[in-house]
Amino acid sequence: NGLQKVFDCMLVSLCWLTACLPIVTIGPACGALYRTVCRSICRDEGGILKPFWDTFRANLKNGVLVWLPILAVYLFLIADGVIVRGLLHSSTLYGVILVLIAVTTVWAAYATAYCVRFNGSTREVLWISLFLVLAHPLTALLVMAAVALGLVLALMVPYLALFLPGLVCLAIRGPMEGVFRKHMRPEDLEKLKQEA
Fold it and tell me: Which of 106, 143, 150, 170 could form an SS bridge with 164, CB 3.0 to 4.6 Å?
């Protein structure tokens, strides 16, 4: 069973890497990764390929619409970082920009997961997910640490990228689900219990 989970993490990670190739589809790819990890790996509800690609297709439009504003924030912050680091040589301001990039990364994780977990307009998904990040700073730090560790490991040992997206998602799923449950209506929680 443990070996099967490792294989499943590798397979879902490969799906995620493939779906992220056009940068504009990173949002729906992250949502499909989250849902597939939650259902197929954590709850053993079936295979990997079909759930991943079904979720990716079903969430393509909403996921892209949620991802594009976040991508714009990333691009703005990266451009600012290049300017601050290269022209102004300000390490303090550069540090602030790095923190904002980290917060944006957690926001992206919440937004893409929220997109596949709940219904809402693009504006609602973006604002609610940002609220969840800011309202639960300790969970946000935990998510940020898991993503940062995954990124560092992938940079140090590139072949780990075959496993890390699935493993990182598996690590952040529990804390994020805890936050989602704190803000769910009682009838939604009851429905969730019946599904489990």
Answer: 150
